[in-house]
Model the fold of this input.
Amino acid sequence: MKLFTNKKQLQTEIRKFNNISFVPTMGALHRGHESIIRKSVKGSGKTLVSIFVNPKQFNNKKDLKTYPRNNKNDIKILKKLKVDYLYKPSYDDIYKFKTEKKIYLDRFAKELCGKHRKDHFKGVIDVVNRFLEIIGPKTIILGNKDFQQLYLIKKHIKKNKIKTKVLACKTIRDKYFIAYSSRLNKLNYVEKIKLIRVIKFLKRYKGNLLSKKQTFNFNEIKKKIISMGVNKVDYIKLIDLRTLKRPRKNKFNLFYAFYIGKVRLIDNF
Ligand code: PAF
Done:
């Protein structure tokens, strides 16, 4: 695996390839990332992974400061997975140039996390747009866990007629149905136990909705999961993935964002 911290050097190296498959990450790699990277490495092109904890997508300084970082383990994982290139840029390498394309934010940026994390998606699209301009990949691969991000990146790419193809990877879960996430590293033992119980409840609740044993009641769910140790609920919503609206048919994903301790967790299933 070749490591680059400078975009000029990276570009000189990858210029000869027109089949770069790009996996953007913020490091603290886990099994979710691993599955995305595996999908990329299995493809016919070269795999380029980036690790950049992007300050512009954090609406809270403390969250940025305490975001999990684990460089040594990340490198070990990337080497094990036979990644071709790792790009680990500095802030200036990413932000000190003028982009060709303008950030396009679809309306969906105002929903869900967009209502609770000011400018978060603007920061995500900004950095992804910059990576796309630097790398010019054939494909970009992202996880479905961050469905809203994935959707907004697709919209930005389409609107700007960028040639990169977007591939989505299914969410990888542990035996308790918890989606792997870098932020899980921040939970202590007691918080992890609380999360296991909450997820078990939400999964059963969704099953009851599908089998019509229950109708959706936000306040009821909120009360219940707070009694189980959740600190704060940003949202719990049912969404039809095709319309991005409240479901009319019995087909939907349950989206949530809540805090356990100081850790904000999101998922959809
Ligand atoms: O999902 C993430 O880790 C980040 O939002 C991304 C896509 C790497 C942009 O910083």
Notes: The chain has two domains: 2-169, 182-268. Residues 1 and 80 are 10 Å apart (CA to CA).
